[in-house]
Amino acid sequence: MFEKIKTLLKKMDFVNMVYYKGLSVLCSEERYDLLSVLYEKRAC
After folding, report:
1. Model confidence, pTM
2. Which domain does 12 fall in, by range?
3. What secondary structure letter does DSSP report for 43?
4. What is the DSSP string of 1-42?
């Protein structure tokens, strides 16, 4: 059970890392399309 939770957390960490890396790329390029408008409050 504990191992499952640990692997799940690792997956979540990976997803979050990719997600925020993608958002920071969006913001640094200053692309004001739908994605950056939706997520700029969170990322920038």
Report:
1. 0.40
2. 7-43
3. H
4. -HHHHHHHHHHHHHHHHHHHHHHHHHHHTT--SHHHHHHHHH
